[in-house]
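Memo to structure team: turn this sequence into structure tokens by end of day. - J.P.
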Amino acid sequence: MPLNSQQLAAYREQGFLHLPAYLHADVVAGVRREARQVFIRQLESRGLLPQINPTGREIDDGMARLFTENLPVFMNCGKQAQHLVSLHRLGLDERLLDLARQVGVEWPNICTRPVLYFNSPRLAKSEVYWRVFPHQDWRSMQGSLDSVVIWVPLIDLPPELGPLEVVPGSHLDGLVTSEVVDNFGKVDESYLRDKEFESLPVSAGDVVMFSSFLVHRSGTNSSPDIRWSCHFRYNNLAEATFVERGYPHPYVYKPMEELLTTGFPVQPQVSAVFRKAA
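Reply from structure team:
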């Protein structure tokens, strides 16, 4: 979908674009459905869901119970949800890559793994897990100067669900954060004194693309519902300063060395898998 001259000018001046109904609602609904199914499998195995056709609210309540009663399993579900094929497929969707190219990201490259969010005060150990303070994504990305973030709501996000809030034009001020707090480049308080945030209520299928330098934060989810969204980050491998700096990459991925389930697996369990397959 080509951007018109007004949209391109708005992106350069404001640092973001809100594109209603840019993706088919079924696509984003599929990502959310699969993510919820990760939790549902665990909820069912622990008797935390009605056995027949649980409602959305019953699933949300079950997730809250799992968070309270078995935090390690809840966290493992959240980690597995970050690796869903449907989520990664969306991040590679040509429609999203084309958006990045149209605003100047000549050679889009995945900056880091996609992130799927399921935010609610009921599912948070601290505030940052459901409402993130004002921040800039470039501080943690440290990539190309024209890098972009594409944020996709997986459900309708009216004001009461706390949609994204942005400071229009703040990308032009460059880097205004000096520290990373809880993995986010926290914006210096002195910068925020005369700034106003704009809330961006969105619907499932909308897309919000913004500069990695845009100052933004989470809105306040004042409802009992879970705020489902995801985002993707892209650098430009052709951007001159990124090339000159030798393509720095600040993310560290490595496996834990210890066995996470003591004594597992034993040989009969492994061989049974292959006998069953035959």
